[in-house]
Specification:
By secondary structure, the protein is an alpha+beta fold. 31% of the residues lie in helices and 21% in strands. It has ten helices and 15 strands. A hairpin with a 2-residue loop joins strand 9 and strand 10. The protein is globular.
Length: 329
């Protein structure tokens, strides 16, 4: 099909070099888990229901780094409409994908594979469109996609701000940090497609990583494949058609002094089916300072810009992100 990225051709040398002796645990047997499921409708109720809901959010952020939310304020119809628009851009001819968004960008919008990969463990069988919310406003040739992304991003930003304030208050952190530093335009949205993979036992759909964000909110289809690290083991996350998945990002882990966990997660590749997801990365501005007020702090203060620059340097040198350990005191 002419819309598929040429993985096998582009990474032919890498595949020939590593395919025979590659040992990848992406398809090893893992336990299936159901993430903590939190009904956010209880936040509108009186004490003690509201306080119990807040407690559940905080405990999930501490113990799992991941949780699912229902009654989150984003309609199923809007999410499904977004997914429909998403499939349309992915089913364009491959040769046109990198040029169909013709506005000026600081980074590539269309991404696939991993040009820095030095072995199969670093090759993600994935294609994505990665937008800053500033760039979305320039999508004059894609009005229906633009309106869907803006609607989703507005609602997800509101949800992330609410959750961020709740989590900050539970640690006596400054509750207004998100409102003051996380404007919608400083966040990002990524449309993901995981194509069927003929070597699914050898590569990841998305290699293990943690997120460079305060919070990430994901809407996924029911194919499954998301796995996270729990107590030193990979566990498979069972999809919930009613829920959004929320996870703590690196920046919130640093601000919480490691109380909230930015957990490594990955997506396994599937041989015969494709998978779609939409990820919203809730971020402060590049110059916002990331600093914990909990003493003694574990990390030196840094900005998101510094953190990204360090990550980019590490990826170029090693093929992978090192992350927060670079900023330990």
């Amino acid at each position: 099909m002419d819309y598929e990225p040429p993985f096998l051709e582009t990474y032919k040398t890498l595949l020939q070099k590593h395919l025979v002796d590659s040992k990848n645990d992406s398809c090893s047997m893992v336990e299936t888990c159901e993430l903590p499921l939190i009904d956010l409708g209880r936040l509108n109720l009186q004490h003690p229901e509201r306080e119990e809901c807040i407690k559940e959010i905080s405990e999930a952020a501490r113990e799992w780094g991941f949780f699912q939310v229902v009654n989150h304020g984003i309609s199923k119809e809007l999410l499904e409409s977004m997914q429909f628009e998403q499939t349309k851009v992915f089913y364009k001819p491959f040769v046109n994908k990198s040029t169909q968004f013709d506005f000026s960008l600081s980074d590539k919008t269309y991404r696939w594979g991993n040009p820095s990969a030095t072995n199969l463990r670093q090759l993600s069988w994935l294609e994505s469109f990665h937008f800053s919310l500033t760039d979305v406003s320039k999508m004059d040739q894609h009005k229906s996609l633009r309106s869907m992304i803006e609607a989703i991003a507005t609602r997800m930003a509101h949800l992330a701000e609410s959750l961020g304030e709740i989590l900050a208050c539970k640690l006596n952190m400054k509750a207004s940090y998100c409102r003051e530093n996380c404007l919608t335009k400083s966040s990002f949205i990524r449309l993901n497609r995981y194509p069927p993979c003929p070597i699914s036992s050898k590569v990841y759909g998305l290699m293990p990583h943690s997120d460079t964000s305060l919070l990430t909110i994901v809407y996924q289809d029911q194919v499954g494949g998301l796995q996270l690290m729990k107590d030193g083991k990979w566990v498979d996350v069972k999809p919930n058609p009613r829920a959004l998945v929320v996870n703590i990002g690196d920046l919130f882990q640093a601000q919480s002094n490691d109380i909230y966990k930015s957990i490594k997660h990955r997506v396994v590749a599937a041989e015969k089916v494709e998978r779609f997801s939409i990820a919203f990365f809730y971020c402060p501005s590049e110059e916002a300072v990331i600093q914990s007020n909990i003493t003694p702090p574990m990390y030196r203060k840094f900005t998101l810009k510094e953190y990204r620059q360090q990550n980019e340097k590490d990826v170029k040198q090693t093929g992978d992100k090192v992350g927060l350990s670079r900023f330990l005191l």
